[in-house]
Amino acid sequence: MSTITDKMRLMPIVLAALFFLSREVPTQAQPSAFRVVHQMSAALPDSAVTAFFLDGKLYCAASGVVLQAEQAGGQVLRFTPDTLLLRYDENIDYAVRHPVTFDLYFTTRDRKGRSALYVRPFGEGKKNKARRMELDGLEISHPVFATDGRTMVFSSSGREGRHDYDLWYARQTKDGWGEPHRLGTRVNTGQDETEPVICGNNLFFVSRGHSDDGLSHLFVTPLFSPRLTGDTVGMPRLGAGPVVRMPSPFNGDGASSSLVLDTVGSMAHWLFSDGNRRDAHPLYSYSGDLRARFLWGYVRDVSGAPLPGTAISVLRGSAEACSTQTDSLGFYSIYLPSSDDFKILFRHPGCFIDTLPMDAVQPSGGLLVTELQRDITLGSLPLRTPFFYLDLFGPGASTTLSSHGVAMLAPLVRFLRDNPTCSVTLSLCNDLTHDRTFNSLLTDQRIAALRDHLSALLPATVRVTILNLCSGDDGCNTASGLSRLVVVLD
Q: Who contacts 25 (Cβ-Cβ below 8 Å, separation ≥6)?
């Protein structure tokens, strides 16, 4: 089995920050409302292996040396060896600070590619020497910390590197770091899961096992999920939420992705290898933040059965921002910027269309993707099969649609607006008295009110035919008190 270092030496690395509020978004298998805005470009060393931020500065590890980027005027001028980190250990390939104690955690690799973790207490002096940190004999790569510093997540190939890379975690105790545990099978697969990044309650990581194309892509899952026990919330679970592939532009065709976090600059940075540029190591820098809404859920029919292949369109105003569809389990997911209003349409053949409005929200601050779940139930639509509405109008001989009638017609109106090439035949009867002429005239007046209501709401392309069932020789003269609208869609 090759090591992470061996695999990453083949990857040209590109650096970018995330930016949202896209106005033109390409539709992909996992869509996005994000885009990136170019700020800076340069070239990484050919032998670059990893890149990371520490104290607001960009570093990369290349040829066994830690290099720091020198920047000026939006350009990376050069990468030079960093004397401070090299003083701690010349084999450092990754470093991160604890968010509470500011202790420096860093990893090194030996000639066989095995990774070891060291911790150096914050401050200067002889007492602050780095010491190797052991966690049950595990090889440890790319440690990251939850916001409160009490949980550390890292990648490991197990003891002595005998397995694929999985994500592990350890809890901080009064005596140090406790026993490490795997995050579980929702996150870990039979292939490599590496390079975790924690941003708010979001755990980003790189995986090959979650990808259909066999390439490494960037995924996200909630770090903590509450454990419900009756009416109380117990100890939160780690890695128990849904795992979703990050959308475009974070994952592109033929590209492998990862993420690094600059806590000083409050920016997330996107690393990827471009499969179309194997001979180049370009560096791109973008600005922005990751505040957004991650919307997910399941689409089912009224019996609770999943509706795979449901088309989902996200509209900003009248323009489609992005689209997706449900998988075989009826599951969908999509990313929306926090600061915009959206209307989301759910369409499935033979079902009424459902509309989900998403109002703009104020981000809570910091880098945070707010997770929202919305499960949708779509009612079946019997095309060419008559169905009917009763008592759409007010009491007595009223010729005005009641508020109840307007509400009852709303799903029909919504469907016809979203399917403007459909035709509908409406047959109205009002058998209120023994006077056939009166019933026919009342039906005519109610047809006029119904036609005015529909014409104001429907596009002109919808073909609407309204028939008076009380006209003609048979008429309506039984005084049954019945007021019924028969509907046939085609």
A: 31, 32, 33, 34, 35, 248, 321, 322
Task: Please tell me the distance from the alpha carbon of residue 268 to that of residue 43, in angstroms, as a whole number.
Answer: 20
Containing structural domain, residue 361: 299-378
Residue 368 binned pLDDT confidence (cut-offs 50, 70, 90) = low
**What's the count of helices (H) and strands (E) in the chain, helices before strands?**
4, 38
Per-residue pLDDT band for 161 (boundaries 50, 70, 90) equals low
Please count the structural domains in the chain. 3
Q: Tell whether the model's pLDDT for residue 152 goes beyond 90.
A: yes
What's the rounded Cα separation, in Å, for the pair 384 and 161?
Answer: 64
Report which of 12, 34, 38 is spatially closest to residue 25, judged by C-alpha positions: 34
- Report the C-alpha gap between 207 and 187 in whole angstroms: 9
Do 391 and 471 lie in one domain? The reply is yes
d(CA 407, CA 178): 58
DSSP 399-448: -SB-HHHHHHHHHHHHHHHHSTT-EEEEEEEEE-SS-HHHHHHHHHHHHH
The answer to whether the beta carbons of residues 69 and 58 sit under 8 Å apart is: yes
Q: What is the pLDDT of residue 236?
A: 62
CA distance 61 to 76: 16
pTM for this structure? 0.58
Pairing of strands 166-173, 151-156: antiparallel
pLDDT of residue 241: 78
Say if strands 104-109 and 92-97 run parallel, antiparallel, or are unpaired. antiparallel
Cα–Cα distance measured from residue 266 to residue 287, given in angstroms and rounded to the nearest whole number: 10
The DSSP bridge partners found for residue 17 are 269
Residues 6+ apart with CB under 8 A from 158: 138, 139, 166
Decide: 239 and 272 in contact? Cβ < 8 Å: no
Looking at the fold, whether 190 and 246 belong to one and the same domain comes out as yes
pLDDT score of 274 more than 60: no
Q: What CATH number is associated with residue 364? A: 2.60.40.1120
- Quick one: 348 exposed, middle or buried, by C-beta within 10 A (0-12, 13-18, 19+)? buried
